[in-house]
Amino acid sequence: MFEQVRQIFAFAGPALGIWLSGPIMSLIDTSVVGTTSSLQLAALGPGTVMCDGLSYVFMFLSVATSNLIATSLANKDEKEAANHLARLLFVAFGCGMAMLAAIRFSSSSMLQAFVGAKNSGIVPAAATYVNIRAWAWPAVLVTMVAQSASLGMQDSWSPLKVLLVASLVNAFGDILLCTFLGYGIAGAAWATALSQYVAGILMLTSLKAKGYNPLAIVVPSFKDILQMIEIAAPVLMTMLSKICFYTTITYFATSLGPLTLGAHQVMIGIFTLFSVCGEPLAQTAQSFMPELISGKTRNFEQARTLLKTLLYTGAILGFSLASIGVAVPFLVPQLFTNDSAIVAQMHSVAFPFFWSIVLTPPALSLEGTLLAGRDLGFLGLSMTSCFVCGSLLMKIFHKLGLGLNSCWWTLVLFQSARLAASYTRLHSSKSILKECAPAATS
């Protein structure tokens, strides 16, 4: 187990930077904009949901890339891995162009429907932010596939170096465009979009250095598309359920007024930053489990030991991250806002905020294992059930007028249900970690 812990940290440590990049960029935007305008801070709420939230919908591309390449390399077939990469890069670029067109065409109407008539004052600022960042959609999705390919090759250092550069570009751009040149929320959007193109170019260069030609993209055949759909469809259902649930939280927070929405925007940004610290554990499972479950050197006992190690690590990590995260709104709220009313709202949700972070890393460890073993049908169904039940519960709390606190307690229940469902599945007779388990269906 000690050796497995060492391997986990050797891989997951650098991978952490990859998952932190997006939330850090959004938090930089939140910090720079929030200290200058409370209205624009509120506008970042729906704006980042549309940009970052929709990008998570396309995580099915990331999962499919990592899974297909890791499985190909586990079976010692580098040619097949290169073919998968070429096809997925084509799909990513096509999806990126489609999203660029869709967002530019419909952003204002989507934002108006999201925030409602009572908060229509924040729509122009939010639409400005969304429309500018829309230009980076092709780069965002190509970078996502390139990063996942590198992780499937068990290389987490190259993406980390790339994203460190991109984050620095974003921070410098935010300070220059927002603080010194006074472009406000528009400057934050341009800085983020530029950094995403920098990340895409550097990531493709990194793949080329590994011997893969990123420009040799291939149009997928019908058979290739079916294989992608087999993996991607249930993963998409899983991602949509998570994104829709987080979006629902912001939707109900929006109806509570600009001050409450501003507080929620800061807290959900901090939550995202700290909760994604558990994503490297899920990625570790997706990168190493295929070899133990279905590779030429399969070893189910070692796979179960790896899962146990990931769970222990996730539990310790969850409590550590939650302790740090909950201190932020109490010790340094001025990093995000100088409005005392917003700060008071932030303090009111501290307890459920703490537990929502604690539960996330172990839940992600379990879900990463299910993804690695392609038990995708169960994962999609369980996540959809959690979303439906959580949304209904939140609506009831909203009708009762329980305020922002109820949104965060519903998030705690959502995370608890995810963890319980995945844990039960992996310890049942149908577990993918049992030698005699039936083949997982998707």
TrEMBL record:
<feature type="transmembrane region" description="Helical">
    <location>
        <begin position="344"/>
        <end position="364"/>
    </location>
</feature>
<keyword id="KW-0472">Membrane</keyword>
<protein>
    <recommendedName>
        <fullName>Protein DETOXIFICATION</fullName>
    </recommendedName>
</protein>
<feature type="transmembrane region" description="Helical">
    <location>
        <begin position="310"/>
        <end position="332"/>
    </location>
</feature>
<dbReference type="InterPro" id="IPR044644">
    <property type="entry name" value="DinF-like"/>
</dbReference>
<dbReference type="GO" id="GO:0015297">
    <property type="term" value="F:antiporter activity"/>
</dbReference>
<dbReference type="InterPro" id="IPR002528">
    <property type="entry name" value="MATE_fam"/>
</dbReference>
<dbReference type="GO" id="GO:0022857">
    <property type="term" value="F:transmembrane transporter activity"/>
</dbReference>
<dbReference type="GO" id="GO:0042910">
    <property type="term" value="F:xenobiotic transmembrane transporter activity"/>
</dbReference>
<feature type="transmembrane region" description="Helical">
    <location>
        <begin position="228"/>
        <end position="254"/>
    </location>
</feature>
<dbReference type="GO" id="GO:0016020">
    <property type="term" value="C:membrane"/>
</dbReference>
<feature type="transmembrane region" description="Helical">
    <location>
        <begin position="376"/>
        <end position="394"/>
    </location>
</feature>
<feature type="transmembrane region" description="Helical">
    <location>
        <begin position="163"/>
        <end position="183"/>
    </location>
</feature>
<comment type="similarity">
    <text>Belongs to the multi antimicrobial extrusion (MATE) (TC 2.A.66.1) family.</text>
</comment>
<feature type="transmembrane region" description="Helical">
    <location>
        <begin position="266"/>
        <end position="289"/>
    </location>
</feature>
<dbReference type="Pfam" id="PF01554">
    <property type="entry name" value="MatE"/>
</dbReference>
<keyword id="KW-0812">Transmembrane</keyword>
<keyword id="KW-1133">Transmembrane helix</keyword>
<feature type="transmembrane region" description="Helical">
    <location>
        <begin position="85"/>
        <end position="105"/>
    </location>
</feature>
